[in-house]
Structures are given as C-alpha cells and as structure tokens.
C-alpha cells in the first residue's frame, strides 16, 4: 500500500495559529502600516497590542520554534509580514537576539535573559543582536570589536562600534558578538549579553532607510563596556575548550565551519518566510486591482500581458514558500543542509519579494507609484531581503561552495 504520510497540509493547530496571526496582521498591522512607515519610529503601541494577546511573547515563539514539523515559525512570519514588514520586524526583531542566546547560552542564561528581552504586557521591551560592523558586513571575520577578560574582577570589557543593529540602542538587552582571540578569525568570536543600563553602551547614528522604516536600525557604540563574567554566553569553560580546539585545527591547517555561520544558515528560512509574506501581499493587491481596473472597456486582467504576469508572480510566491518549508522541515528534523538549503530558501524568497513587488507596482500603473496604495511601500520593504541576514551574493556563495570541493571566492 502506498505510504500516504507525506503531506503539505497544515495541521489544525498550525491552521489556528495562521488564522490568529493573520487576523492581527489584517486588523491591527496593515491599517497602521502607512502611518509608521512615514513616522520612521518603532511602533510601540502595536508591539504592546501584540503583547496583550500573547503574540509578542517568548512563550508564543518558543511554541512555534518547537513545532516538530518546522512550519510554526515560517507560517507565523509569512502572516505577520503579509501585514507589514516594518511593523512585523519591530515585533520579531527581538527574536534574533533571543536566538543568539538560545544557540549559545547555558540554560541559566536562557532562563535569565530571554524573558527580559520581551519585558511584560505593561512594560514591553525589545532586544538587539549586534554583529555587523562598519568594516565587517559580509566579511564577518574582519570584526574588530574586542572583548578582553579582566581576570581579577571576572569581568569582560567590550570596546568597538557595531552598526546596522535592529533595535540597537533602544533595546533593553543587547547581544554583542566580539573578538576574544584575533588570531582565530571568526572562530575567535564569542557572544555577550550587555544587560540593561550598562554604562558605556550608547546608540550612535540612527539610519534613515529606504524601507522597513518602522523598524529601528542604528549604530551601537561600546566604550569600555564592563559586563560580569556570567554574561559570556556559554560560559568561560566552554569558550576555552572551543578556542583550544580551534587552535589545534588551525595548526593542522584544517578548515572548520564557523558555529555562528551555521546558526545563520539555520535561521535563514525564517527570513525567507518574511519575504514570502511581503511577496504574497503585493501579489494579492495586484490581483485585486487587475480585476477591477478597467481600460479599453475590460478589466486589465483580461489581457494576457497582465494575467501572465500574475501567473508568474503566484508561481514564484508558491515556489519560494516550498523552499522555505523544505528548509524549515529539514532543520526541525535535524537534517543537515548538505546543499545549503537554508541559503537557497532565503535567496529565492528574497529575490522573489523584490521581483513580485516590482511587478505589482507595474500592474497598478500610476497608482502603484504612489503612497496611496501599499505596493510602493512593499517594494521598498522587499529590497532589504537581498541584503540582510547575508546578501544574495553571499547566499549564492554558500550554495555554490556546497556543490563541489572547489574553493569558490
Ligand atoms: C535594515 C538593516 C537591518 C540589519 N539588522 C542587523 C542586525 O540586527 N544585526 C546585525 O548584526 N546586522 C544587521 N544588519 C547588517 C546586514 O546583515 C549587513 O548589511 C549585510 O550582512 C551586508 O553587509 P554590508 O552592508 O557591510 O555589505 P558588504 O559586505 O560591504 O557588501 C557590499 C556588496 O558587496 C557584495 N559582496 C561582498 N562580499 C562578496 C563576495 N565575497 N562575493 C560577492 N559579492 C560580495 C555584497 O553582496 C553586497 O552586494 C542589518 C542591515 C540592514 C540594512
């Protein structure tokens, strides 16, 4: 008898989550999108609304994260970002910092810091993950922010400048990646918690951006920031062991995969799902418009030139979602990304969001070019998806390297 176990159907719990998140995206996020895009500010009241219903909470994301099929997070992301990418990123940006702690922290560190990142319903907080630097974007190994251990006080002293940090400077808890052993390149990095109110951490420039303008992006300056020893994620013993192993391998000339890079690879499908949400939103607006806009005495969708564009848009959105779901399922099932499937999903979904939002603008004609309609904003928002969490070129590099032993640069 045929094995009928394989299914792409969401189960009842997943459908419930999808519909619940969609309801919030449609009723609360989408109507506020244009306003917060113009204000270019963190939409605190909306984060608070999300917190009130449990949609901005550690519990909710942990539950989705541990969905054994892997689809809890991508389904949630797609619906939130369908509502609006800038606001949605303000809601899920904390998750990036939380994942940084979940990936590297001890159980005690996870229990102490991750709940603090979200605050509580009456006093919501956000968190920031600070890795990128002015001279270390794609080239993470060029990072310069140093962390030096002051053994006498068992404190770490962090100094340097981080850039592009989502929620940087407005966060309560900052997770900062810094160099502990410059000889080891990216294997000599470690992550630290900078607790709320720590002296020496300040916000530098806040960036005025092309899109996702409701999401705060800024430099974070670390001027001899002292944090207690227990703020080193994973603890000193584990760090020393890891560095010793890396030194051994470096001596033997062995190339080792960077743990932080492996974490990024695993988080990429979630970012791809965000792009799918934007692309689907723009496609839906365009489909609706094409059916109602009349030119030459007939709806413009009556023309193959328009209908075929919509067919391509829908096909790309579905294909992107399938790549995202495959990678999410693989990650949850503990399958290794042998062919950089995480990168494939982020690359294809990010490029799809850019292409589909551009096509949607074209279908809306002059209206598509104005801020009276949402596709112009969606197109600006989509542009970040070939840049952050690894540019499209870096995704191609990761995929290309997985294909053969040729050391492609
Ligand atoms: C809105 C926003 C939010 C962000 N949020 C965060 C955050 O929360 N935390 C954080 O740490 N970082 C964050 N980032 C940083 C983001 O991850 C980096 O911008 C990204 O990794 C690219 O780095 P870069 O901007 O320095 O570009 P560069 O690395 O300088 O790249 C410039 C161009 O060169 C290309 N390029 C570089 N190297 C290669 C190569 N080897 N082969 C081919 N092409 C190459 C790139 O693809 C790109 O097109 C954010 C960025 C933005 C814009």
Describe it.
- It is a single chain.
- The chain has 409 residues and is an alpha+beta fold.
- The protein folds into three domains: 113 residues, Acyl-CoA dehydrogenase/oxidase, N-terminal domain (Butyryl-Coa Dehydrogenase, subunit A, domain 1); 125 residues, Butyryl-CoA Dehydrogenase, subunit A, domain 2; 145 residues, Butyryl-CoA Dehydrogenase, subunit A, domain 3 (Up-down Bundle).
- 53% of the residues lie in helices and 15% in strands.
- It is built from 13 helices and eleven strands.
- The strands form four sheets. The chain has a four-stranded antiparallel β-sheet, covered by helices on one side.
- Helix 4 runs antiparallel to helix 5, helix 4 crosses helix 8 and helix 8 packs antiparallel against helix 12.
- The longest helix has 34 residues.
- The protein is globular, with a radius of gyration of 22 Å.
- The termini are far apart.
- The mean pLDDT is 95.
- The site of flavin-adenine dinucleotide has 22 residues, from strand 3, strand 5 and helix 13.
Per CATH, the superfamily of the largest domain is: Butyryl-CoA Dehydrogenase, subunit A, domain 3
What ligands does this structure carry? flavin-adenine dinucleotide
* CATH class descriptor of the largest domain: Mainly Alpha
> How many angstroms separate the termini?
49 Å
Please bin the fraction of helical residues: 40-55%
Strand order of the largest sheet: 4-5-9-8
| Major sheet characteristics | 4 strands, antiparallel
Specify the CATH architecture of the largest domain: Up-down Bundle
């Amino acid at each position: 008898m045929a094995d009928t176990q394989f299914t792409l159907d969401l189960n009842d719990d997943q459908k419930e989550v999808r519909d619940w998140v969609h309801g919030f995206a449609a009723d609360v996020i989408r109507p506020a999108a244009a306003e917060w895009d113009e204000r270019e500010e963190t939409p605190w009241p909306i984060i608070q609304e999300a917190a009130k219903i449990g949609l901005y909470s550690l519990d909710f994301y942990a539950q989705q994260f541990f969905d054994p099929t892997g689809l809890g997070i991508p389904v949630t992301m797609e619906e939130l970002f369908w509502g609006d990418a800038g606001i949605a990123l303000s809601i899920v940006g904390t998750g990036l910092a939380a994942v940084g702690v979940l990936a590297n922290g001890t159980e005690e560190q996870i229990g102490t810091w991750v709940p603090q990142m979200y605050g509580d319903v009456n006093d919501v907080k956000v968190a920031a993950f600070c890795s990128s630097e002015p001279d270390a974007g794609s080239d993470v190994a060029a990072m310069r922010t140093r962390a030096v251990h002051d053994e006498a006080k068992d404190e770490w002293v962090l100094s340097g400048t981080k850039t592009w940090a989502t929620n940087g400077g407005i966060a309560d808890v900052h997770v900062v990646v810094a160099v502990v052993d410059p000889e080891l390149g990216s294997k000599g990095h470690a992550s630290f918690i900078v607790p709320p109110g720590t002296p020496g951490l300040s916000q530098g420039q806040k960036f005025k951006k092309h899109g996702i303008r409701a999401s705060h992006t800024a430099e974070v300056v670390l001027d001899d920031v002292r944090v207690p020893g227990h703020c080193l994620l994973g603890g000193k013993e584990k760090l020393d062991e890891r560095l010793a192993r890396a030194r051994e391998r470096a001596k033997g000339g062995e190339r080792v995969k960077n743990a932080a890079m492996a974490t990024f690879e695993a988080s990429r499908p979630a970012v791809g799902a965000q792009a799918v949400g934007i692309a689907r939103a723009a496609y839906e607006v365009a489909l609706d418009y094409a059916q109602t806009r009349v030119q030459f005495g007939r709806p413009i969708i009556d023309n193959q030139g328009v209908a075929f564009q919509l067919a391509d848009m829908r096909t790309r959105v579905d294909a992107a979602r399938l790549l995202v779901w495959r990678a999410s399922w693989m990650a949850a099932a503990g399958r290794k990304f042998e062919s950089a499937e995480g990168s494939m999903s982020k690359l294809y979904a990010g490029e799809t969001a850019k292409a589909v939002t551009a096509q949607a603008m074209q279908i809306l004609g002059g209206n598509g070019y104005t801020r009276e309609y949402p596709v112009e904003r969606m197109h600006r928002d989509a542009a970040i998806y070939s840049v952050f969490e690894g540019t499209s070129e870096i995704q191609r590099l990761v995929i290309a390297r997985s294909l053969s032993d040729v050391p492609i640069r």
